[in-house]
Design brief:
The complex is a heterodimer.
Chain A (H helix, E strand, L loop, with lengths): L3 E2 L4 E5 L4 E7 L6 E7 L6 E7 L4 E4 L2 E6 L4 E6 L8 E8 L8 E2 L3 E6 L1
Parallel strand pairs in A: 2-11
Antiparallel strand pairs in A: 1-3, 3-8, 4-5, 4-9, 6-7, 7-8, 9-10, 9-11
Chain B lengths: L4 E3 L2 E4 L5 E6 L6 E7 L6 E7 L2 E4 L8 E4 L6 E5 L8 E8 L7 E2 L3 E5 L1
Parallel strand pairs in B: 2-11
Antiparallel strand pairs in B: 1-3, 3-8, 4-5, 4-9, 5-6, 7-8, 9-10, 9-11
The chains are: A mainly beta, B mainly beta.
């Protein structure tokens, strides 16, 4: 039973364009959501997060949107750069889940120069 | 600030052998996590420590996996005996406490032949 799903295993985008990565969740008790980025042979690194009391959080080129009614969140990268090429993981947690992270399967983003 | 250190980086063993992984978290981080990441999937939590006590080990296959965090700092994860399906990257992460951002090490890639 996958509680966090990333339905697109890969995404290819031209440099300078917008990248949109999507994530869906099923557990309504999740109240905190994170995006992690992973380069090959490295551990995941924290990118951006959002609390369920917000519907948008922005940090430079990265913006996360949360639609609680649809149980959907998305990560927007504008403009995309070749260095953004990595695997992106969506993760969710909730106080009732012991604040433990449940990860999606990841989306591999390729930004072409 | 030094990150989460893990060793070894790679390990190849035959099935039914035993193996151990070591993790040194970021200094001052009370919470330590071990994750298993199978190829093409997101990280899955195996066990969570708060200082030297276990918070959650519900996903740990206790018939073959064990973990300890003596003195509330370093941690070891052991598999005995290993099975083919244990081939994965084992990630260690730490956070200041249970509600903070988790920082990951580079992981140990285990291949069971």
């Amino acid at each position: 039973d996958q509680q966090v799903k990333q339905n697109s295993p890969s995404l290819s985008v031209q440099e300078g364009r917008i990248s949109i990565l999507n994530c869906d969740y099923t557990n309504s008790m999740f109240d905190y959501f994170l995006w992690y980025k992973k380069y090959p042979a490295e551990g995941p690194t924290f990118l951006i997060s959002i609390s369920s009391i917000k519907d948008k959080n922005e940090d430079g080129r990265f913006t996360v949107f949360l639609n609680k009614s649809a149980k959907h969140l998305s990560l927007h990268i504008v403009p995309s750069q070749p260095g953004d090429s990595a695997v992106y993981f969506c993760a969710a947690s909730g106080e009732n889940a012991g604040n433990m992270l449940t990860f999606g399967g990841g989306t591999r983003l390729m930004v072409k120069p | 600030e030094a990150g989460v250190a893990q060793s070894p980086r790679y390990k190849i063993i035959e099935k039914r052998q035993s193996v151990a992984f070591w993790c040194n978290p970021i200094s001052g981080h009370a919470t330590l996590y071990w994750y298993q990441q199978i190829l093409g999937q997101g990280p899955k939590l195996l066990i969570q420590f708060q200082n030297n006590g276990v918070v959650d080990d519900s996903q740990l296959p206790k018939d073959r996996f064990s973990a300890e965090r003596l003195k509330g700092v370093d941690s070891t994860l052991k598999i005995q005996p290993a099975k083919l399906e244990d081939s994965a990257v084992y990630l260690c992460a730490s956070s200041l406490n249970r509600v903070n951002i988790q920082y990951f090490g580079a992981g140990t890639r285990l291949s069971v032949l």
